[in-house]
Amino acid sequence: MDADPPDLACFRLVDEPYYTPVGNEVALFEAAYRAQVPLMLKGPTGCGKTRFVEHMAWRLQRPLITIACHEDMTAADLVGRYLLDAQGTVWRDGPLTQAVRGGAICYLDEIVEARQDTTVVIHPLTDERRVLPLDKRNEVVAAPPGFFLVISYNPGYQSAVKDLKESTKQRFAAIDFTYAEAAREADIVAREAGIDAGTAEKLVRIAAASRNLGHRALEEGASTRTLIRAGKLIARGIAAAEACDMAIVAPLTDDADTRGALRSVVAACL
Amino acid sequence: MTAAGRLDAAGEAVQDDAAALERLLGRRPALQAGFLAARAQARRHLGVAGLPRWAAQVSALYHANAGPAVLEALWGIERRILPGADLDTSAALWQAGRTLCRQSGSRATLALLDALAARLAYGGDGRETAARLAALAGLAERAPDALAPLASVLARVMDELPPGPMAQWLADGLALYPTDRRRRATWFRLEDPLARRRLADLAGAVRFAAHEERLKLVAQALFGFTPEVRVVADPALIRPRLAGGLLLMPQGFPDLRPEDAATFFEAAVTHAACHGAYSRARFAIGRMRPVQLALVSLLEDARVERLAARAYPGLGRLWRRFHTVEPSSARTVRSLFASLARALADPDFHDDDGWIAKARDLFERAFAEHAERQDFVPEIARILGHDLGQLRISFDARAYRVEPAYRDDGLGLFDWDETDPDNDDVLELVVEAARLRQEAAGEAPPDPAPAPAGGARMKGAASREEGTIAGYYPEWDHRLRTEIADHVTVRLYEPAAPAVSPLAARLDAAAPVAARLDALMRRARLDRPTRLRRRLDGEEIDLEAAQEAMLARRLGELPDPRIHTLRRRQGRDVALMLLLDVSQSTADPVGRAGESVLSTAALAVGLLGAALDGVGDPFAALAFASNGREDVRITGLKGFAERWEAALPRLAGLVPAYSTRLGAPIRHAAAGLAPQATHRRVLVVVTDGEPSDIDVEDEAYLAEDARRAVAGARGQGLDVFCVALGAAADRAAAAIFGRRNSFPITRVEELPARLAALYFQLTVR
Question: pTM of the predicted model, to two decimals?
């Protein structure tokens, strides 16, 4: 297919999404894209996986179709289905089919949330075949070179109930994400939230302390995203302690002791 | 009826009393002067109308054979309160005095009155004093023997408790030891640790326990490790102390108000954690004098706090709140040291003292140069200590208290093993440091090895040769209706050397039972609802299927009629924790030759475990026994993450011993089970008897505690069941777990097969 079908134009990113690389993940992504090796982005919540994909889509000049996976999602939700209208039945492509036809980057966010029998529909797209069979339409859509499949996967949520099938996992190359180191994270927070560097540093320190509690009192520590949220509130004139309480402490935990501890940590860092 | 009315009714008699009293006392010149003065005062404050009643009370006390000293003491008390007191208060005072005298004699009464008077200020309406005396009189009526022991500590009790709680504390002592006079006396002498603890509780004393969890998390978050804190009830310990890998926390801080407790303990724990993070090595003592030791500790405190405050400015603010000393011209060690501590913590603090200025200057320069190196601290301490000597300011190591109170006493910062033998001055400190370290070892785990030099003083693992401490758990005292915090020590023990046992063979032999169990398990539907699609009937339309059906009709095909969805519980989402009693009584023989209660229970657990393993449910098992409250013995049989095969040899290696203290193991097991992320979490206790232990005489105590523990576990969302082996166990279990939740097995041989019943029960709920 030479050009995008017109309806994918709205999936193109015009402005550069802000992203500062942590390592050489940009080069890795580009290499995987050129080699048509599907990618899995691993990492804790709110560390910048989605932003990275957006950035790369902009960089590679591809439309980006993001699908947030959930438990009730069916294969038809991904692939498409016949709909009824006054004239008769109409086939409507699902987002995955749209991405394949249009040669877009398709990003399946939190893929473990989808049921395992749903995720197998991506299998033919992830090996050498690079096709998407639409059995109801009796059609096989071949993916153009521009099509690229990216999934995100949070290892922290893994449990016996929710995990990727081994056969799914092994179709992907993986890039590990962590939070940026303190100085860079402070830069990111300052820039995204529009606050001064000093305040951003303090927020990052709070996050670092809260991450010490990960896997103990907390599932995960405060993410870069929560810091940006807190920073945005601060930029709106909310007092730093209140902003942290609202954006970091309260969302992170309901346990009274852990809350108390986090409040003390906030007070210590500010 | 008013006081006046009563007075009228008994007017005659009272008049007679007063006159008779005056005649009586007239014959005793020693008393007469006091009586006349007291009567004059009574007339002035109670009025002439009140006088006869007052005289009647005095007369009654006199006739109760109170000695002159008791009368004098009461008059003395009255003198202080009468200006504000009314007639009823005065009457209550005398009445209580009379009861005290009658029940426990004038000597004990006098001791109590003296203690009371010593704490009595002039003024007030006297109600408080009357209430206290009434409480004492109430005690005298029920346990006259308790008053003599109480007299020695009454002043302290009154200092800590207002009248209401004091009455409660007295009543608690009676409730706890209704018949045992000896132990009652230890309670009222405050020798019973429980009495002290209860006193502290009633005083609203700021207990560390309420803050412990939070502060451990704070330390973990800020410094990356969790300090081990141990509360020590030793009056000699008045400041926190670092001892080996522990932070010893005094049980009470006398001047600490409850509203300040949260910040105070936070300051104390974060300060101690700073030492853990930044005091890399212990200081050598060498020939240092006590004053220099105190200075080293003060300067090191300032150094580590500075370092921490660089990263966490809020901590600096937190600590500064406790520096309240103001500059003063008094050149005592106390004021100089407190000022120096403040000067180093607070740059805005001004003190014109030359010694402090010099100390500040030396410290600032050294800190600016190499803050991370702690060896500049003894150097400065040496200079400053020498200066103090020049100023002829003497240092009394015994009277010295580290200020502010949140800071540790500094003894843990030194390497006491390497004291210079000629250095006699610090000998006393060495002894003190060693004493509490040992005491901590007696109550709590010591550091197994001397702390390594690498700043690991706070991080030492808590262990004891007999078993690793897994935690301290509260126990419910049903007589006090209160939970005694950290009362029980739970220790983990390795299972005995895994014997090669016939368990595997016996498991094979029991295959039919296993198969039945397995079938039951699979039928158990216990988890959260899921959506079933494409059903013939159901609560909702399955849009996907409906769409296809419509489509098929349009195309002229036969539509699939299954267009509904259904929400059903299906599949399994349950975690099980098995708690197996291995007390001595489980050695009793059962049925066939060679079988004991324990071996039968082990077989049952083996079967159940195999079934659960097949189904894939998360499953853990613990064995428990107890040897007093300091040693509740838990043996891990299988952890949630372990393979079932690993547990089999441990199960076979179980040896029956000790007693059954049920509450703490339930709390421990619940703590392990609660974090499991399953829809249902089931705790099953397999026990063969009623709770008992060597250090408990009250039969109901452990059962009540276990009941409380079960309620606590249910409060955490756990399902708690009991499999009771034998009739006695069943009676006890029904009371503890509830009739519906205990499964009696009278013939223990049936246990392996009957464990299935428990699972059947779970399925129909």
Answer: 0.59
